[in-house]
């Protein structure tokens, strides 16, 4: 009886491990981390004496997303220049942002990074602190992505977008948009 129970236990364990190993990794939702970066940058600006707000700009977020994905997938990258030679200004312009921009990048050799670790890295780098505490930066876009052994976070800062807003898709009044809860 006990040998059957042992075989059954091993079989159940093997099936459970197979189910876990065979399951594809889920896409992480880093919204909370991205929002925390914006909040922490606002705090740094306030502590530096700025009275300007900082607004999330979808164009800068797109530029940040492009560089985040590039740095995540191209291990040779460790800064502001993309694998295709683009700069933060190129990416922002390609996303439709017209204005001066700057960028902070964190590449962490682990599955995740906390907001405190991230802001500590940037706060103690004089060039990145200068960007975060610049009162004329009024726009921001943040994106982060994870691989099993690497996390990349990019924040793109702007001094004001002179281009018109990017039009969104139109929808009938009272109808939910794409991805919106019904």
UniProtKB/TrEMBL annotation:
Leader sequence residues: 1-28
- Specify the superkingdom: Bacteria
User: Could you tell me the keywords of this UniProt record?
Assistant: Signal
Full protein name: Cysteine-rich secretory protein family protein
Which species is this record about? Mycolicibacterium rutilum
